[in-house]
Specification:
Shape of chain A: elongated
Oligomer: homodimer
Number of helices of chain A: 14
Low-confidence stretches of chain A: none
Strand content of chain A: 5-15%
Chain lengths: 299, 299
Amino acid sequence: MTTIGFIGLGIMGSPMAKNLLKAGYPLVVYDRNPPKVQDVVSAGAQPGLSSRDVAARSQVVITMLTDTPNVEAVVLGPNGVMEGIRPGATYIDMSSISPVFTRRLAQQMANKGVDMLDAPVSGGHTGAVNATLSIMVGGKQEVLDRCLPIFQALGKTIVWIGESGAGQVAKACNQIVVGLTIEAVSEALVLAAKAGVDPARVREALLGGFAQSRILDVHGGRMLRREFAPGFRLRLHEKDLHIALSTARELGMALPVTALVHEMMNAMQATGRGELDHCALVTLLEDLAQVEVKPAAQR
Amino acid sequence: MTTIGFIGLGIMGSPMAKNLLKAGYPLVVYDRNPPKVQDVVSAGAQPGLSSRDVAARSQVVITMLTDTPNVEAVVLGPNGVMEGIRPGATYIDMSSISPVFTRRLAQQMANKGVDMLDAPVSGGHTGAVNATLSIMVGGKQEVLDRCLPIFQALGKTIVWIGESGAGQVAKACNQIVVGLTIEAVSEALVLAAKAGVDPARVREALLGGFAQSRILDVHGGRMLRREFAPGFRLRLHEKDLHIALSTARELGMALPVTALVHEMMNAMQATGRGELDHCALVTLLEDLAQVEVKPAAQR
């Protein structure tokens, strides 16, 4: 079976690596944090000495890192993936990073005879553990076809979006819609609460019509129950909107509402709320309005 | 059977009045535009001479008008509803107007011995014709119970939200969520198109995850097909967000993203696009980005 190199064993990467082991893939892993390596090695993986070493020993190399600069350092930096990866190998970046950087990187990989896919995911820690991630893939469709068994060990919905970078674009679009919808639901529920109307009843009524969304359902419910433990950390959503905004700038276009919601997420971080779930964005408006979104029964 | 007075026979009011006739209610109608009265009289209604006359001849008076000033004029102005309505009668305002004004009006009606319900609807012209409107009701619950057969002749989902004005608050919340979600979908799809990624594939991928919403489905589909004939006119959505914003101001709270989307709707009207469907909001971003949200197959 294909030997897979896996770099980045955080809250997402670690359960994903373990699912690849469960599917029977020989795995070589690396993380700059040794205890995280040890944990996956206990589950059956081989430890790599560096990103370069992992790449040199694998036919498929996967990275799952938190931001564009991290991917740049791990892939292009000293002892990085680029130094070790072999012509004919495949590189899959499952991090959520800049689509523009992704396209550049795919070109550099191609120059070395390496096929690259960008394959960011949605579904969070739970999706990673249960192998139910949604995976948005950019790159050559035949490369995706070849790697499909690997993706099927990690996720449920695997969608080819387009050429290199297209997976990252789709992820940025996803985070725009999710972030802005959280804010939309927040403004509506805080208005209801401030007007003395039960926000739980308003949510119920709105779920039956054109205002329906998974965010109104799931995150609206969390807001009412004051469940702000993550879930998906607000500071990572801020990072994703930052990627969307810098991509838009490089392409020459404006995302006015994304920019405003990004500023609100910045304000959340500045006031110590970056580690909460992203639906805690509602508390920013609540502060301004001096009211809380609580069902009438609990007030 | 209860004689109903119906004032305001526009794109919504006219089919609603006809559904009440179909349900067997004796109907007295008025509109400042005589041909509209004539049309509903042909269907079996009695013509009233004025709003006052309609009110004097009815046990239940319904208004379906376009804005707060119109309701104010028709109810409190000369020859208005307040001059004619009888103690013991019920007044139902189905327009979408200010919750604050609604509460004041309900108090004035109570002083005259008249029960008032605010009962704004969502579902548009199609919902009005097919009697499938969603109706959000504010006022005393026992008054709603008494009037339920009337609402059942007009709509499908009838939800009691709370005391007087609560129906209007819920409607404002609905329009916030719908308007902001349209903008969220617009920013995502225009980013995809500008990045050279098929916006139709991005919409498909996003519908499978947390970004799912009825707006992404229905209005996203309309954007891709360039279907900008209304539907729900953008200028009426602008009016509804104006109501939400002035309500927020009166309550002492901020709705920052609603304010920005309201400004974008103003810009749409200023550039002659107020009569298009509200999903045409996407064209404002398209202008700025010099790109159109079209499926790759059609480019």
